[in-house]
């Protein structure tokens, strides 16, 4: 039976990624959109999720593509109405609210899928398999991009809950938490806030695994020119390097052939499978690390940022 | 069989509270101390936990009274050595590390007790029982004290991981998370940082329960004169008020008689019972709220603080 899906929040990420992935995925069909300022031709459109849920359009599942700050009320309404829910990353503005959503999904026996699209990048699973058999000495994450290019005029991203440079940085953390065999925790965090903004534009993080392996991360939103989304793992057997956001892999200096990225198609394929059994896939570990980075963060004011 | 206990970190809280409570509790006995700059007459004393664990002194359990920033390595060493562990509040400097400790305790089949002494204040359980049968309209927390009086010269408390005003504030959160029948999550957080310090001296927090009940909290470390540790719950049936840090209760305007506070004795009595079955009691919810308050916090610089 085909899952009847509604998208909530028809913004940039929904148009760039979700619509195409849904169309290409068997077992799921877009039947409605709830969005304040946008609609889709030929698809039932509503201003918000409450209007959608009060209508006679039948939906089985909801994919939330709105900014994280308002997502709790939307997700809660959907879960209370017995709908399966898929969350864009980051899953919410606070940990308390995403833990509450998970408890509610369990209570209502519906699926909750907290997605991390970067974990679907082509090099991630091969890297994970490879690292399971290696001795890891250190990990270095470099995640540097131009915020003006990737988030033009997105004011919410600079507001509390919008996470600033952790909006892309959490993608790196979602990969590292997947590929390393051991858990890790933060030991030092330096956050750089533009003097006119409520969210950091750069961060320097030092983690350690339980057994003491250092994991260093540099996140920066001020990089113009070539963009850097790299994770380098130094192992006793040689270096394992993921570049281009986890889509390319180099092992001991040799490039490996990896499949083409199908991040969002993989997400929707997995969601279809979760919904089939009303299963939950809600790993909030990347958001826990970001939350730790704020709690443990030492703050430095830097030059004002103007869009 | 009596539990042979070691205290790690013989500082202010250990001397003010732990030593007396241990002496007054059946089933547990202090046999060792590990502390950099302190020792106890007649008790085996070591410089740190590694020296203690390498010695031939037999201990069954360890109570960690050190500042939260260095506690992970100590707790991990104790758990790996098969010791039961009791953690002072806050349980650690990050959520990732306390989650890792819980997983390790489970793996080693030993007890982990993440304590919240304020939950043992005399009015807390009566308030919890009462509120289970009432309709709650709003909650207001006022937690205002003089940092110079309560934390004289404690530099670690102003460092990242020391939590600043959340060091006392987390006590209020530990009570509210216990007495309210519903979970809640943060919707707005304002943090006030002295311009020369890395931790907040005051915070104003707005939470909401899942069903929309507002929970407001004002934390302030700048209050001289009378100190305020109050939680007021407005219910349809009348006000329920906890004062004096949860040790006194007023219901519908009438003071209720409550027993004398035995916070730390209750903690050690509970620890003895946990260790008997190698059970875990690790509710990190108060630290999750603090972490959320930092992640969602809007920061304002205020007057420099000098000790």
From TrEMBL, chains A, B:
Transmembrane intervals: none
Family annotation (SUPFAM superfamilies): NAD(P)-binding Rossmann-fold domains (SSF51735)
UniProt GO molecular function: galactose 1-dehydrogenase activity; nucleotide binding
UniProt xrefs under Pfam families: GFO_IDH_MocA
EC number per UniProt: 1.1.1.48
Keywords: Oxidoreductase
Regions annotated as coiled coil: none
InterPro entries: Gfo/Idh/MocA-like_OxRdtase_N, Gfo/Idh/MocA_oxidrdct_glycsds, NAD(P)-bd_dom_sf
Domain of life: Bacteria
Residues of the Gfo/Idh/MocA-like oxidoreductase N-terminal domain: 3-113
Enzyme class: oxidoreductase
Name of this chain's protein: D-galactose 1-dehydrogenase
Organism: Pseudorhizobium flavum
């Amino acid at each position: 039976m085909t899952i009847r899906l509604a998208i909530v929040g028809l913004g940039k990420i929904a148009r760039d990624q979700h619509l195409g992935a849904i169309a290409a995925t068997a077992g799921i069909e877009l039947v409605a959109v709830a969005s304040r300022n946008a609609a889709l031709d030929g698809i039932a459109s509503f201003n918000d999720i409450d209007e959608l849920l009060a209508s006679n359009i039948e939906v089985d599942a909801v994919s939330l593509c709105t900014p994280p700050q308002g997502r709790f009320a939307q997700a809660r309404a959907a879960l209370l109405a017995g709908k399966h829910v898929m969350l864009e990353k980051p899953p919410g503005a606070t940990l308390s609210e995403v833990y509450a959503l998970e408890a509610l999904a369990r209570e209502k026996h519906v699926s909750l899928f907290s997605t991390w699209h970067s974990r679907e990048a082509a090099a991630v699973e091969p890297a994970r398999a490879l690292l399971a058999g290696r001795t890891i000495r250190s990990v270095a994450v470099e995640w540097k991009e131009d915020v003006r290019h990737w988030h033009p005029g997105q004011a919410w991203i600079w507001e509390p809950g919008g996470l600033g440079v952790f909006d892309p940085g959490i993608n790196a953390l979602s990969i590292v938490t997947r590929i390393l065999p051991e858990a890790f925790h933060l030991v030092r965090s330096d956050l750089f806030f533009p003097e006119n903004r409520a969210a950091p534009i750069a961060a320097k993080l030092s983690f350690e695994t339980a057994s003491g392996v250092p994991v260093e991360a540099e996140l920066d939103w001020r990089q113009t020119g070539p963009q850097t989304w790299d994770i380098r793992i130094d192992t006793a057997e040689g270096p394992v390097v993921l570049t281009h956001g986890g889509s390319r892999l180099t092992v001991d200096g040799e490039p490996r052939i990896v499949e083409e990225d199908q991040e969002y198609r993989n997400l929707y394929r997995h969601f279809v499978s979760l919904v089939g059994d009303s299963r939950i896939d809600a790993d909030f570990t990347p958001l826990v690390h970001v939350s730790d980075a704020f709690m443990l963060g030492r703050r430095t004011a830097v030059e004002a940022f103007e869009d």
